Amino acid sequence: MPKTEVFNKEIVLNQASHVFHTKGYNAASMQDLVDATGLNRSSIYNSFGNKHNLFLECLKVYQNKYQRSISNLLLKANCPLKAIESIFELYLEEIVKDNDNKGCLITNCKSEMANQDSTINNFLINNQESTLALFEDLVNQGQENSSINRNRTPKDYALYLFTAIQGFRMTGILIDNKQQLQSLINTTLQNLK
Amino acid sequence: MPKTEVFNKEIVLNQASHVFHTKGYNAASMQDLVDATGLNRSSIYNSFGNKHNLFLECLKVYQNKYQRSISNLLLKANCPLKAIESIFELYLEEIVKDNDNKGCLITNCKSEMANQDSTINNFLINNQESTLALFEDLVNQGQENSSINRNRTPKDYALYLFTAIQGFRMTGILIDNKQQLQSLINTTLQNLK
DNA sequence: TTAATTTTGGAACGTTCATTTCAAATAAAT
DNA sequence: ATTTATTTGAAATGAACGTTCCAAAATTAA
Lengths: 193, 193
Fold this sequence. Notes:
The structure is a homodimer. By secondary structure, the first copy, chain A, is mainly α. Chain A folds into 2 domains: 1-62, Homeodomain-like (Arc Repressor Mutant, subunit A), CATH 1.10.10; 77-193, Orthogonal Bundle (Tetracycline Repressor, domain 2), CATH 1.10.357.10. Chain A has helices at 9-23, 30-37, 41-48, 51-76, 80-97, 105-113, 118-144, 154-174, 178-190. Chain A is elongated, with a radius of gyration of 19 Å. Chain A binds chain B through residues 23-24, 26-27, 100-103, 107-108, 110-116, 124-125, 128, 151-152, 156-157, 159-160, 162-168, 170-171, 173-175, 180, 183-184, 187-188, 190-191, and chain B through 23-24, 26-27, 100-103, 107-108, 110-116, 124-125, 128, 151-152, 156-157, 159-160, 162-168, 170-171, 173-175, 180, 183-184, 187-188, 190-191. Chain B binds a DNA duplex through residues 1-7, 29-31, 39-43, 45-47, 50-51.
């Protein structure tokens, strides 16, 4: 009996994400989101509750997109170190592709909103934990097959890589030269070899 | 003849910086700044023009503070590698000291505002260039006195260190455990040895 | 003390903000 | 075709935004 939702939620979230990614959470206005999605204000509020919740859903979509990409990389990779390398290269491609140099939505969110809102903070901590766990696992495997040295524990290297990724995303905001960034990755990863 | 300015501009800028640092540029309201400084709205506009310009002055004060600290470190340091180490340790102390875990004002600004406003962008690029130049110089000296390896050029290592610092500041927003962060610094710098 | 100049206080400016409201349009199921 | 539930459009809400304004207070030099 009801009129069903006509718009594609995923498309709308991608459009909204683009606004948040470009402007940041606070500078993105509801009008910007209405314009970008083509939806009516009411429809946005009907479907997503409020701006804050819409942003949270955008974060999740963004996170899932990368988790899927990384899962695919891991399937293809024949060696843990190569897997780590290809994760960095994934971000490298992202930086080079993005003409606006927006950086990482999640890193930007962390910088703008961490330790202010508990919902956001939970998301960020969750994201951090799972990234650290992924790296720890990969480093562990790498040390077992001797592609990664044993100078540091997997936990230590995981934090090192997590930090390097964040730094990489920050650097990519003002430097998008592929050669320079590729060299930066090499420098970062030579530490593990 | 004129009534002279009664307030201390430096104190006011530090108070304003604290607001911007805690909330970010966009989430910091003029009312927040009025409350934090104890100044009247008019006085703020008289002395600093507008919010944007006040923020820019805060950025400069923040930058100068670190430049002074680093200059002092360089004078004391007896070895380029140790100097680099003490720069990282300066930020470590900053992170541990800061109970709000606000991160770096400049890094946060980059994440929030880069590639949107040309004045801000110029500041950020300038800050980047001078940081890169400092590191390049130190690495160069380190390679000459053999405390730093020659696996990479000074320019490469400078970008590596600049990126590491940004990542370090980002990581410090959600992790403020001194041991963990100290270990992270060691991991980061072992790459140069 | 008077004159000159600036800082203040506080209200007011017009705009934009996120959010709400509600009647009209819509579309599926009966 | 009618019922039922939802989405839509567009206006309205009230609060908050950055900024301006101006008379009153304050301070120093003459």
